[in-house]
Amino acid sequence: MSATVTSEASAARRRLVAMLEAAGIEASSDAGAFYPQPVGVLVGLPALLRRGLGSRTFEVPVLVVSGDPLNSELAVDRLYALADDVVGALKADRYAPSSWRSSSNAEPLPAIELPVTVTVEQEA
């Protein structure tokens, strides 16, 4: 018999993807299959901030990535418009320019990174 083990960190990622999808924003947590066309949202790996008696709180990077270079106002506006939608959906309070590299051979793509705090209740 096998059981699926789900960590609180994985639950935090799934919660963010579900929140984005509920807001009509397509998001992925699979970096290997992710490529923005022309923009996309990637939910990164959580960092543990604190442990409570029955919960874990994580900070999860959410990246809004542009598949196009930011050499036109249209590309810049498209990236920031989606970042603003993601901020609203996740009730985040800040973001900053960043970059994302899809593989060791690829040039980094322009991105906006949102650090999102998520608290997950532990299962008994």
In brief:
The chain has 124 residues and is an alpha+beta fold.
Architecture overview:
By secondary structure, the chain is of the alpha+beta class. The protein has a single domain, classed as Alpha-Beta Plaits (2-Layer Sandwich). The protein contains 2 helices and 5 strands. Strands 1, 2, 3, 4 and 5 form a 5-stranded antiparallel sheet that branches. The radius of gyration is 15 Å and the shape is globular. The chain starts with 7 loop residues before the first helix and ends with a strand. The model has no long low-confidence stretch (mean pLDDT 91).
Secondary-structure topology with pairs:
Blueprint: H1 8-22, E1 39-43, E2 47-51, E3 55-66, H2 73-90, E4 96-100, E5 109-121
Antiparallel strand pairs: 1-3, 2-3, 3-5, 4-5
Give descriptors for this structure:
Alpha-Beta Plaits, 124 residues, 5 strands, five-stranded antiparallel sheet, alpha+beta
